[in-house]
Amino acid sequence: MKQKLIFTEQPGVAIDILIEEMGTPQVVVVADTNTAQFVLPRLVNDSKSVASAKLITVKAGEPHKNLESLTGLWKSLSDMNATRSTVVVNLGGGMVSDMGGFAAATYRRGMRCINVPTTLLAAVDASVGGKTGINFNGLKNQIGSFSEPEASVISTIFFNTLPGQQILSGYAEMLKHALLKDETTLAKLLAYIPDGAGFDPETLLPLVEESVLVKADIVEQDLREANLRKALNFGHTVGHAFESFAFKSGSPIPHGYAVAWGMTVELILSHMEAGFSSETLHRFAAYIKQNYGSFEISCDDYPALIENMRSDKKNMSADEINFTLLSAPGKPEINRTASEEQIGAALDIYCDLML
Amino acid sequence: MKQKLIFTEQPGVAIDILIEEMGTPQVVVVADTNTAQFVLPRLVNDSKSVASAKLITVKAGEPHKNLESLTGLWKSLSDMNATRSTVVVNLGGGMVSDMGGFAAATYRRGMRCINVPTTLLAAVDASVGGKTGINFNGLKNQIGSFSEPEASVISTIFFNTLPGQQILSGYAEMLKHALLKDETTLAKLLAYIPDGAGFDPETLLPLVEESVLVKADIVEQDLREANLRKALNFGHTVGHAFESFAFKSGSPIPHGYAVAWGMTVELILSHMEAGFSSETLHRFAAYIKQNYGSFEISCDDYPALIENMRSDKKNMSADEINFTLLSAPGKPEINRTASEEQIGAALDIYCDLML
Q1: Dihedral sign, Cα of residue B179, residue B182, residue B183, residue B186
Q2: CA-based Rg of chain A, rounded to a whole angstrom?
Q3: Which segment of A164-168, A232-236, B300-304 scores lowest on mean pLDDT?
Q4: Domain spans, chain A
C-alpha cells in the first residue's frame, strides 16, 4: 500500500473527501495542546468530519513522545470504543504523527490514519514514510513501527504563523531531498530563501510537493530501510552528533539546523572520499552559513562529537562510523564508513569554511 | 514475507540452522518462568545458539500478557543493546509468542523472531500467522500488530509432559482447521484421540503439520483479516461467550474446550442456516461430548451468553452478531449474522445433543 499524498491549500476539504472515500468511518483527531488550541479551530470550520470527530489531546513537545503519553492514547481509543475501522487524524508536528501513528498502528492490531502536518519539518519529513514510534529508555524512537498512514494532507497555510527558525528547520530537510534528487532541484532551492520577509506559501507549496515526492519515491522502494532508504540519513550522522553535543552543553539547537550543518560536514566528507564537486560544496556551505549561521566548534570538541557519531544506532559495529555519502547530487552511496582521522579532517575544513 | 514452518523432533538443531542462515546474529530467548525452568535446559543442551543466548524471562500466565510485562521486555532489550539484527526466540505458549512477538515487532521498529511453541495449542494456533499483542484496558489483545515471525520451529517433543487437558485444548484448534479444510481431514482427526494413554508424538506430528498448513495457507492469503482469515474465527463467537461466562461464574474453562463446544453450537447454526450436513454435525458433536464432555448451560443462561456474543470485537455494529458458518467442511461463509432467536434455537439443540 502506498500512502496518498495530497498537496492543497484547502486541507479541510481534502480531509472530508478522504474520509468519505474511506466509507465515512468514526474519526478521532489526535492533536497536541498547541495544535488543539491554535490549528484545530480553523479545521473545524472547514471540515465536517473534523467538526464531528472526537478529540484526543497529548502534551506538546518531544519529551512527551513517551510511553506515558502513548498509554494515554491507547486508553482513550479503548475507552471511546474505537474499532479497526475508526480513522485517526494526526494534527501536529512530527511528535504527533510519530506517536499517533504508532498508536493507530497497534490499537487492535492496526487502524488507519491520516497525517495533517502543521509544521514544514513534519510536512517534508515525519508525515511521509511510515516511521512511527516513541522515545524510550532515554533513546529516540526506540519503540515503533514502519506503518504508513493512509494519506498525508500537506498544506502550507498552517506554516504562516510558524517562527522563521522553524521554517528554516524544515527547509534543511528539503535541501537534503534536493541533494538526493539532482543538481537542478538543488539549484532551485539554493535560489530561494524561506525567511520571514520572503516567505510566500504559493511559492513554497510546489517546492514542498517536489521535496515530499523525493522522499516518497525512496520510501516506496525500501520502506524498512534495508538499503536505499538509508540515503535519507544523509547529514544525520554528524547532524545528530551536533544536536546531542548542543543538548548536553545546555544550548539545544533545532533539528533542522543540526542537519544543515551536518550535511555541510558530510558533503565535505563526500568531496574527500566520494568525489563530490568542490564547487557545489562551496555553494551549499555558503547558503547554509548565510541562512543558518554556523555551529561553533573547536578541535577540542572533536572527540566528544566523534563519540556521539559512534553511538548512532545505524552503526553496525562499535568500530565503524556509518555515513551516507554523495558522489554527486542524486548519487548517494550508502553504508560508507569513515575513520576518526577522516572525520577530523572534514571537521577542520568545516571550521575553515563556516567559522 | 512468508514465515518458515519447520516440523521436527530436533528443535535445537533446527534453531541453530536458522540462526546460521540469518547470519549468526545475537540471540535473545524470551521464556516464561515455567518454560525457562523446564524447557530451556533441554534446548540449551541441543542448540549452541540457545546456549549462548541472553535470556529474558516474563511471568507465566495470561494475566501477565500486559503492558507492564511488555515494558519490561522492551527495557531488557534496550538495556542489553539489542539491535535490529538481533533475533528473538520465543520459547513458550501463545502468551510468550504474542508478547515476545509484539516486543520484537516494535523494538527499534522491528527485529526478527523465531517461535518455538511449547504447547500444542500454541503450535497450531498462536505460533503461526503473526497475530501479536497484549491485553489492555481489560480487553484481550487490544494492543498488537500483524507481524509474522521469521520461522516457527514446531516439535511435539515438548508436549510429552503436558497435561491431557492441554493437549485436548490444542486439538480443538486442529479440529477447527480440519473443518476448514475438508471431510477427509476431519474424518482423520475424528478417528484419533489424543488423550493421555493414546498420546503418541510420532502420530501427532504429521497431523500437527497438516493442521498448521491449513492456517498458514489462509493467513498467506489474508494476513490482516480483511476477509478469508475471518474463517479462522469459526467456533470462537460462541466459544468466547462460553469462556467469558465460565470465567465470570468463577469456574474458568480452557480456551480449547470453549472452542470445542463453541464449534458444536456454530455447526448447529451452520446446519440450520447454511446447509451443513446433519450426519457430520452429529459425528462431530459425539466426538466432542466423548472427549471434552459438555459445557453445562440452561436456557436461563441464554441472555448472558448472547450478551457476551454481542460484545465480541469482531461485530461491526451493536445490532448484529457475527459468525463464520460452514456450508460443508472446507466451505466457510464469513460475515454471516444470526438473530437472537436463531442463536437460542441452536443453543436448544446443543442442550439436546450434548447434555
Answers
A1: negative
A2: 20
A3: A164-168
A4: 4-159, 164-198+225-354
State the pairing for strand pair B4-7/A151-154: unpaired
Q: Which CATH architecture has domain B4-161?
A: 3-Layer(aba) Sandwich (3.40)
Examine the pLDDT at B197 and tell me if it is beyond 60. Answer: no
What is B164-354's CATH topology? Dehydroquinate synthase-like, alpha domain (1.20.1090)
Please choose, from the candidates B199, B155, B126, B167, the residue with its C-alpha nearest in 3D space to the C-alpha of residue B42. B155
Cα separation, A247 vs A252, whole angstroms: 4
Q: Point out which residues pair with A117 in neighbouring strands.
A: A92
Please report the pLDDT score of residue A31 as a whole number. 98
Is the pLDDT at A78 greater than 90, yes or no?
yes
B203–A contact, CB cutoff 8 A: no
Asked if the model's pLDDT at residue B311 lies above 70, the reply is: yes
Nearest Cβ partner for A75 among B107, B131, B137? B137
Phi/psi at A39 (nearest 5 deg)?
-110, -40
The DSSP code for B154 is: E
Question: Does the beta carbon of A227 lie under 8 angstroms from any beta carbon of chain B?
Answer: no
DSSP string spanning A308-328? HHHT-TT-SSTT-EEEEEEEE
Q: What does A42-95 look like in DSSP terms, one character per residue?
A: HHHHH-HHHHTSEEEEE-SSGGG-SHHHHHHHHHHHHHTT--TT-EEEEEESHH
Are B320 and B337 within 8 A, CB to CB? yes
Fold exhibited by the domain A4-159: Rossmann fold (3.40.50)
Pick from B78, B105, B133: which is nearest to A136 by CB? B78
Q: Which 8-state DSSP code applies to residue B24?
A: S
CB-nearest to A67 from B71, B83, B137 is B71
User: Does the distance separating the beta carbons of A71 and B145 come in below 8 Å?
Assistant: no
E-state strands within chain B: 4-7, 27-32, 54-58, 87-92, 112-117, 131-136, 139-146, 151-154, 321-328, 331-338
pLDDT tier for residue A202 given thresholds of 50, 70 and 90: confident
The CATH class, in words, for A164-198+225-354 is mainly alpha
Interface of B with A in 308-337 (CB under 8 A): 313, 316
Read off the C-alpha cell for A301. 570538541
Stated pTM of the model: 0.94
pLDDT at B198: 53
